[in-house]
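Hi all, long-time lurker, first post. I run a small reading group and we've been trying to get comfortable going from sequence to structure in the token notation. Rather than ask abstract questions, I figured I'd post a concrete chain and ask someone more experienced to write out its structure so we can walk through it together at our next meeting. Sequence below, copied exactly:
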Amino acid sequence: MNHKNYMNLALEEAKKGAAEGGIPIGSVIVVDGDVIGSGHNKRIQEGSAVLHREMDALENAGRLKSAVYQSATLYTTLSPCPMCAGAILLYKIPRVVIGENRSFIGEEELLQKRGVEVIVLDDEKCRRIMAEFIEINPELWAEDIGE
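-- Answer (accepted) --
Happy to help. Here is the structure in token form:
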């Protein structure tokens, strides 16, 4: 599995979100080398309380048998928040690959305690897109992470 290639796809999703005026965080769900769902944070664009990138990717993957999710890897440009970690646990996604966790450390420890393999790439491109967004939009960032 080439984590860098899939993370680049998640980063493309993040860029879509930024181009729409939203928060630049993206995600893809991969099963057997195929992307089955992708998404980006749409809280601002949709006026949604819950459309984080993982939730959008799950929605776009659609209603699938649990065995599909149980063989998936979820790639996300930023560490998952409690809501998104809950969805990962609910669908028993066994592996999460995180682009960066310097801007925000989510529920990595919870995921690991529940048996999820967590891989942090500390990707420079993921760090840069978030740092630039946070510097320009601190109030939107604070809203998105619940401050």
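A couple of things your group might point at:
The radius of gyration is 14 Å.
The CA atoms of residues 81 and 110 lie 11 Å apart.
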